[in-house]
UniProtKB/TrEMBL annotation:
It is an enzyme of class 2 (transferase). Belongs to the class-III pyridoxal-phosphate-dependent aminotransferase family. One of its GO terms (cellular component) is mitochondrion. SUPFAM superfamilies: PLP-dependent transferases. It is found in: Mitochondrion. One of its GO terms (biological process) is L-alanine catabolic process, by transamination. Its main location: mitochondrion. The gene is AGXT2. It catalyses: glyoxylate + L-alanine = glycine + pyruvate; N(omega),N(omega)-dimethyl-L-arginine + oxaloacetate = 5-(3,3-dimethylguanidino)-2-oxopentanoate + L-aspartate; 3-oxopropanoate + L-alanine = beta-alanine + pyruvate; N(omega)-methyl-L-arginine + glyoxylate = 5-(3-methylguanidino)-2-oxopentanoate + glycine. Multifunctional aminotransferase with a broad substrate specificity. Catalyzes the conversion of glyoxylate to glycine using alanine as the amino donor. Catalyzes metabolism of not L- but the D-isomer of D-beta-aminoisobutyric acid to generate 2-methyl-3-oxopropanoate and alanine. Catalyzes the transfer of the amino group from beta-alanine to pyruvate to yield L-alanine and 3-oxopropanoate. Can metabolize NG-monomethyl-L-arginine (NMMA), asymmetric NG,NG-dimethyl-L-arginine (ADMA) and symmetric NG,N'G-dimethyl-L-arginine (SDMA). This is Alanine--glyoxylate aminotransferase 2, mitochondrial. It comes from Lipotes vexillifer (Yangtze river dolphin). Homotetramer. Keywords: Acetylation, Aminotransferase, Mitochondrion, Pyridoxal phosphate, Transferase, Transit peptide. Signal peptide: none annotated.
Length: 458
């Protein structure tokens, strides 16, 4: 443990010297001292099962021994920029990462954060298409930089300042909250509560959302557009899944108007969804640009943009893109070891097996509790939407959600939150978790729901 400051002193320093935007997730903020694989330890030595891995930042486990060993070795060898020198880790990494992407997605730009990666992807889309307008979904989160804030359509991230020139939002094809139902038309192993009346491959909801998308294209943007950004599953908005086939049709419509299609894999990539290594593959589409961050470095600041040689050339013709720390030797050595661990430890397969096991267990709680409105997701990206009741689907009041969240923490389980009203619990652990840990997590969550019911019944 750190020989460190008392908890109250930490709170004081935080208040005086750190950005007020760094709001703590819990009413009593968690002061962490150590992490090991799927476990976290606070300053008093209390142990927590981390089922949110710092917002999908840690992909293969906190302080994974192999990743740590590689980082330590590189630490003693060279840390520098890649912007003006060659060094082996970046070339080794470029080969490894590009091998995981389909043709023609073979050119890699390395960055330090998801926002930076999406900034660059916006520039690329505009430079390549010679157009300006970019579309993203309502509820999307693509970053917090001035440029990407135009793509991010989560109300509480919007400011009363000019931003997002050329960015337009379109309706999110959310089959749980949206008007057309269709939740059985998403790619999730769980049973859903409102059955869509159409056949699985021809979902009415999908067609309705495509009509909305066409409406945006004909009313809100220029005839020719630069691009369209989509998360394969929305993370910050509460693990929102689109109806099957939606992205494929949307990509065609975008390309007809000269735009490029960008998959933001910051939360969905690197095997987390289980059935496929990349989220876009689960939709059967091939994007023109893929952006990635968070789990790519297992907690080390790192991000990437991967695109086609043609798009990369369009950018190079217009600007010398420069990033001092993007692709630095430390990040690349760590990134390579993360890819090796995912393969050696079969973590994609584990996401599929343990994730499906967990989804089905959580889905049972939906039958047991009126306030569990929807359980969805894929692999180890799971959303549990909390409602006042199943008929109205109104979000459960925030104070009640807060209490359930705190109760889980008190019992040793950390989970995330998402959605406009913070109404969805998000579960996205490191990909190394096992079934007994899932059993523990489901039991803790169930107990928190029982406690909620007891409070309400009083
Ligand atoms: N895209 C997605 C899908 C994200 O979830 C996030 C972060 N929440 C970002 C981009 C931005 O990443 P960063 O915070 O590293 O800038």
């Amino acid at each position: 443990r750190y020989q460190s400051l008392a908890y109250n002193r930490v709170l004081e320093i935080h208040k005086q010297h750190l950005s007020p935007v760094l709001t703590a997730y819990f009413s009593e903020p968690l002061l962490l001292h150590q992490g090991h694989m799927e476990w976290l330890f606070d300053y008093e030595g209390n142990r927590y099962l981390d089922f949110f891995s710092g917002i999908v930042t840690v992909s293969v486990g906190h302080c994974h021994p192999k990743v740590n060993a590689v980082a330590q070795k590189q630490l003693g060898r060279l840390w520098h920029t890649s912007a003006v020198f060659f060094h082996p880790p970046i070339h080794e990494y470029a080969e490894k990462l590009s091998a995981l992407l389909p043709e023609p997605l073979k050119v890699i730009f390395l960055m330090n954060s998801g926002s930076e990666a999406n900034d660059l992807a916006m520039l690329m889309a505009r430079a390549h298409s010679n157009n300006t307008d970019i579309i993203s979904f309502r509820g999307a989160y693509h970053g917090c930089s001035p440029y990407t804030l135009g793509l991010t359509n989560v109300g509480f991230h919007k400011m009363e300042l000019p931003s997002g020139m050329g960015c337009q939002s379109t309706m999110c094809p959310d089959v749980f909250c949206g008007p057309w139902g269709g939740s059985h038309c998403r790619d999730s192993p769980v049973q859903t509560i409102r059955k869509c009346s159409c056949a699985p491959d021809c979902c009415q909801a999908k067609d309705q959302y495509i009509e909305q998308f066409k409406d945006t294209l004909s009313t809100s943007v220029a005839k020719s557009i630069a691009g369209f950004f989509a998360e394969p599953i929305q993370g910050v908005n509460g693990v929102v899944q689109y109806p099957k086939g939606f992205l494929k049709e949307a990509f065609e419509l975008v390309r007809e108007r000269g735009g490029v299609c960008i998959a933001d894999e910051v939360q969905t990539g690197f095997g987390r969804l289980g059935s496929h290594f990349w989220g876009f593959q689960t939709h059967g589409v091939l994007p023109d640009i893929v952006t990635m961050a968070k789990g790519i470095g297992n907690g080390f600041p790192m991000a990437a943009v991967v695109t086609t040689p043609e798009i990369a050339k369009s950018l190079a013709k217009r600007l010398l893109h420069f990033n001092t720390f993007g692709g630095n030797p430390m990040a690349c050595a760590i990134g390579s070891s993360v890819l090796e661990v995912i393969k050696e430890e079969n973590l994609q397969e584990n996401s599929q097996e343990v994730g499906t096991y967990m989804l089905l267990k959580f889905a049972k709680l939906r039958d047991e509790f009126e306030i569990v409105g929807d359980v969805r997701g894929k692999g180890l990206m799971i959303g549990i939407e909390m409602v006042k009741d199943k008929t109205s689907r109104q979000p459960l009041p925030r104070e009640e959600i807060n209490q359930i969240h705190q109760d889980c923490k008190r019992m040793g389980l950390l989970i995330g939150r998402g959605g406009t009203f913070s109404q969805t619990f998000r579960i996205a652990p490191s990909m190394c978790i096992n079934k007994p840990e899932v059993d523990f997590a489901v039991e803790v969550f169930r107990s928190a729901l029982i406690q909620h019911k007891q409070r309400q019944d009083k």
